[in-house]
Amino acid sequence: MGELSVMHGSTAAMAPVLFKAACPDCRSRFELSASALRLAIGASSRTTFYSFTCPECGSSVRKPAGERIVELLTGGGVRTLRLHSTV
Question: Fewer Cβ close by (within 10 Å): the C or N end of the chain?
Answer without folding.
Answer: C
